[in-house]
Amino acid sequence: MIISPSLDTQLQPLKGKARPLEEWLTTFHLASIVLDPFTNESAWILPTAVRILRQFAGASVRTNFVITATPDEAREFLGPFADEFLVFCDPSRTFVKQLALTELPAFVYLQIDGTVPVNAQGWNAKAWSSVAEHIASVVSWRKPSIPSAGDPGSFKGTPALV
Known about the structure:
Layout: E1 10-13, E2 19-20, H1 21-24, E3 29-35, H2 40-55, E4 61-67, H3 71-78, H4 81-84, E5 86-89, H5 94-98, E6 103-104, E7 106-110, E8 118-121, H6 125-139, E9 158-159
Parallel strand pairs: 3-4, 4-5
Antiparallel strand pairs: 1-2, 1-5, 3-7, 6-9, 7-8
């Protein structure tokens, strides 16, 4: 089943004004890592998530974090990564609901047409590698090695909707 969030959904970046999803997809696909800063599971995967997003930094995909928190909470959780990456804040989890996520952390690929052909929920290296491979294939880029030294062992995510 292909997921299609509403293109009217407002995405609030840490810097700047909220814009509809459609505007964020005008030029590039989105490679989003969705985290809940109030859980250990999202904290455990943060270094891995940073490594994955850095690998795609020069590709034709807009890498980003979606943090289920206010801007201040997102900055506190991400620390210096808040300045390195595009960060969307989704404290009401509106976007998370539209992505049909049930567990966080999650790795989601949104195509320029607004559809989500692949995603991975919780932390399973094979599933996240599959998402990365799909993205790399679409944008003709080298995929990151997943898993890599220092990555955590597999774990079930926490509920995405609370």
